[in-house]
Amino acid sequence: xxxxxxxxxxxxxxxxxxxxxxxxxxxxxxxxxxxxxxxxxxxxxxxxxxxxxxxxxxxxxxxxxxxxxxxxxxxxxxxxxxxxxxxxxxxxxxxxxxxxxxxxxxxxxxxxxxxxxxxxxxxxxxxxxxxxxxxxxxxxxxxxxxxxxxxxxxxxxxxxxxxxxxxxxxxxxxxxxxxxxxxxxxxxxxxxxxxxxxxxxxxxxxxxxxxxxxxxxxxxxxxxxxxxxxxxxxxxxxxxxxxxxxxxxxxxxxxxxxxxxxxxxxxxxxxxxxxxxxxxxxxxxxxxxxxxxxxxxxxxxxxxxxxxxxxxxxx
Length: 315
Fold this sequence. Notes:
- The protein is of the alpha+beta class.
- A hairpin with a 6-residue loop joins strand 10 and strand 11 (about 280-285).
- The radius of gyration is 21 Å and the shape is globular.
- The chain is built from 8 helices and 13 strands.
- This is XRE family transcriptional regulator.
């Protein structure tokens, strides 16, 4: 009996260590071992969660031979956290960090944000506000200005929205900010700049997501247009290497400007597009950094479903 207890303690210690430091496949293998579940049982539990994953895939994941990437696979990772009784977002976080450790440093922030979206955290935060994801508004124009600070961090993001209501009674908008890996949403600040004021704010520490309710002073009728502007002060994460905007549905004009501090200038910048989180990036185009204004930008006359963004390289 003491031997069994000692073995259980060792297994638990290995799991705790793996969850803290990763990598993903080691943590997954340790979690499955700690629960004493054969892969067939894990697969059965996943199917009860409405997720289909083969035993072979599970085996590859815990060996590190393959990594979950498809949307269905990412839903499986989220379900595994519940099945294996792990802390919320623990496997998701390690999976995102493994992107960086395997050399895909420039896409680590995007990968992390994609995983956050797939994990259901964003949907749960939005559900707390009791409004549909688009809030009854169509986007006619969205202009963003991102400021990168002296520590090469994402210091601030300012957004200017031009919207049209497609139903009566709309009087608010839920703004979402995805911090880079390691960000601390509790230290972020949301500022209402024009035609709105701050309502409820929700934060999710493990994923660096902040959702803020922006309240209008009027109730819009279907067909009414409205302009509002807000900013999020961040600066809580490490080195930023890109900024990406995702769209679930087509929208209006989108413009992104990234401004750098004179003490921290990148050596090159480029824009890119991506059809989905799992798709390869395309549409690469080098962007010349303005010497006087230290900024680069992109303009999409009509935003398409998927992702568009600007990435940059430090020396």
